[in-house]
Amino acid sequence: MERTMKDSNTSFEDALKRLEEIVAELEDGEVPLEDSLKLYEEGISLYRFCMAKLNELQGKIEVLLKEIDSTFVRKDFSIEDVGED
Amino acid sequence: MGTHDSFNLNFAKPSEQVVPEFVPEVKTFSVSEVNRMVRDWIREGFPSFIWVEGEVSRVKIHSSGHMYFVLKDENASVSAVMFRSARSRLKFELKHGMQVLCLVRVDLYEREGKFQFYIEDIHPKGIGALELAFRQLKEKLEKEGLFREELKRPIPYLPRTVGVITSPTGAAIRDIIKVISRRFPGVNILLYPVRVQGEGACDEIARAIDDINEHFADEVDVLIVGRGGGSIEDLWAFNEEVVARAISRSKIPIISAVGHEIDFTIADFVADKRAPTPSAGAELAVPDRGELISHLNHLLSRLLLILRHRWDDVKWRIERIGKSRAFLEPKYKLEQRVQLLDSLLEKMAVELCNRLDKSRLQLKHLAGKLDVLSPLRTLARGYAIVYKEKKVVRLSTQLSVRDRVTIRFADGEVNAEVVKDGKNNERQQYLF
Q: Which of A42, B19, B135, B188 has the fewest CB atoms within 10 Å of its CB?
């Protein structure tokens, strides 16, 4: 499933919040069994979704170079490139 | 007043003056010539620059960028002009009533034969020029509402890419990369290199904020704008209005990370979040992946515990039903089922306890195996749930003849109608 980056960004937080809610709600013990079934299922899929999000990021470090025509070129940047002040 | 007296000594007082007769042959001067003579005389009579102290009055800024005002004391006033180029170096805003010290060239404005102060530099009295500029801009932007709490955009929880606007060779970028790599190595870093001090640095920073917003808003979820520590002059770019405006119009949330803990800049007030140092900025920008994972695993283990408790509860309820009079007759059937459920639950409970006792790291593997324990599997084994008007029917007494009910099986639902009510204790077929 293709998501835009903004979506994936907000949905991680939303998913985590929802998972916390579900756990709190279930711990409350007020939820009828058939609803807790659904909540439980949802909780597990939220957990999986969050874990996937935490594992899918890339970790690229790049520097932008602005060309004369105002377009941008990206280049890999490493901490070794950084000299002392 | 001494200068006035000595000045007047060169001329006769009007009352003592003998006005000469008009004689056409005597050399005459044009107005311009006289002006030029006075100008030369003034220029010779004064050093190139002198410091003049006074109070500012009637400040006007012309569309050309030149600034006109009157410098005065209790007894006298002189018109002053500060040209655009000199004014552009002035950090603070000159205001009516200010006590100032001006670096002045005294000269004649020949066109009107008026002598003026040509101002090269102005220092406020009793306070540093930068300090004053800082206070003025802060007050101005505060009045405009740029620092309002409700304008602060939330910093995203888990950014895909952190944009960094700073010097590519400074300590700041090094610290930021280190912290992000430690906390969350998966997050991308996109550096927009700028000069962070010196003439024009503020324009570069403002441009960078606008550029990232224009070209990389889809990708960059949060921006860190900053630099390492330095003197107030070194940090000055972050006190400039252009930077404050750019931060204010940014759609991407901005963390300001300038200097050390004690340094407060205008950028800090406008930014969505102020970090005391670049390292702290990086910490605000990305979560700690390890902490998040253990938090998630903790939630999962709580979910598992709840599940176990719910099963214990269900088991207890079924046993209670089994002991009720209603089930005495077909007890053998029920006992079989309870026994089956019992052993199943026992196995599950043992399994769960064993797994919960293991380290948290292993918990994530449980997620995949959880399906086995899911109540849905119970349905798959032939149990069913009866709903009446979307609510679960727990007791036979909840149903009467001709009630329409929905029965959920593992593979779907059917609708049914009650043909016999529970008064003669023969409706257990609806309970599972």
A: B19
pLDDT digits over B164-188, tens only? 999 999 999 999 999 999 999 889 9
Same domain (yes/no): B114, B144? no
> What domain range is B421 assigned to?
374-432
Report all structural domains of chain A as residue ranges with CATH numbers, in order of start: 5-81 (1.10.287)
Per-residue confidence band for B6, with pLDDT thresholds at 50, 70 and 90: very low
Are B121 and B244 in a shared domain? Answer: no
- Give me the phi and psi of B347, to 5 degrees please: -60, -45
A54 CB within 8 Å of a chain B CB: yes
**In this structure, are residues B286 and B356 in contact, taking their beta carbons and an 8 Å threshold?**
no
Of all residues in chain A, the one with the smallest CA distance to B182 is A59
Residue B326 in any domain: the answer is no
Task: Tell me which H or E stretch contains B218.
Answer: none
* DSSP for residue B255: E
Task: Show residues of chain B in contact with A35, CB under 8 Å.
Answer: none
- Write out the H or E segment, with its range, that includes residue A66: strand A61-66
Does residue B11 belong to any structural domain of this protein? Answer: no
Question: Given B160, B188, B296, which is nearest A47 (Cβ)?
Answer: B296
* CATH code of the domain covering residue B65: 2.40.50.140
**Contacts of residue B374 in chain A, CB cutoff 8 Å?**
40-41
**Same domain assignment for residues B245 and B183:** yes
Residues B116 and B165 in one domain: no
The lowest-confidence range among A51-60, B77-86, B112-121 is A51-60
Tokens of A20: 């916390």
Comparison of pLDDT for A80 and B54, the residue scoring more: B54
For residue B123, is pLDDT > 60?
A: yes
* Chain A contact for B160 (CB, 8 A cutoff): yes
**What are the φ and ψ backbone dihedral angles of B240, each rounded to 5 degrees?**
-85, 150
A35 and chain B in contact, CB less than 8 A: no
Name the B residues in 411-430 with CB < 8 Å from any A CB: none
Q: Average model confidence (pLDDT) for chain B? A: 83
**CA dist., res. B158 & res. B175, Å (int):** 19
CB pairs < 8 Å spanning A and B: 141
Report B:179-218 residues touching A (Cβ under 8 A).
Answer: 181, 184-193, 211, 215, 218
Q: What is the ipTM of this complex?
A: 0.79
Q: What is the mean pLDDT of residues B350-362?
A: 51
- Give the integer Cα–Cα distance in Å for B153 and B288: 21
Within this chain, do residues B65 and B179 fall inside the same structural domain, yes or no?
Answer: no
Helix, strand or coil, per DSSP, at residue B59: strand
A10 pLDDT band, cuts 50/70/90, is low
B264 with B389, same domain: the answer is: no
B377 touches chain A (CB under 8 A): no
Of B158, B174, B211, which is closest to A82 when you measure between CB atoms?
B174
Give the global pTM. 0.63
Give the pLDDT band (50/70/90) at residue B9: very low
